[in-house]
Sequence to fold (204 residues):
Amino acid sequence: MSMLRDDEEELWRQLERLPNRLRVAFAAACAERQIPNYFRFSKAAGHGNLNILIGALNCLWDELQGKPAPETQLQQQLDSCMSLLPDPEQDSLGGLAYYAEDAVSSAAYAIRTRLRSDIQQAVWAARRAYNALDEFVGAKTHNVRSDQEREERIRLHSLVQAELRRQQADLVQLRKIAAGSITEREGVAELRCRAQADAKAFFG
Fold:
């Protein structure tokens, strides 16, 4: 199996070929896989609100499956998400705040993808998923001679490669929807279910 790279330019090109609704689905899937990361932080810290994060993503998924949401509601969801952002600099929980920040940020970028019809927001949602794994794997990567070697070890790690493959699988699914091979309702529902299942193994 070939090793994948985190290539934002190529991701942009692939997303550019999709309608914005499907870019929203891609970004939402990247955020959905990180929900347990926020939950772990919130539980350990004793504050935060997991229901806000889940509700924001549910609002996007519901819209993608035929239940339109007014922009005022989406903006409220975005504001609520932003209120959840922890301060990693104040983290005393072994990095959990960093992972929670990435999870919340991915959800916020997914909402902004919908509100702004901006490809960059979807790219950033995926980047935050990669960042979380970079931080997680990097914390366990020792005895390296250079930053370049460290980054290469992280890139080749099975958890990082798994997320890159998931993102590619999402794009394949979304291209099928765009081509009419499967209905949008069916395809998005499958994408959402797969993201929820993959969330359980995000950190292995």
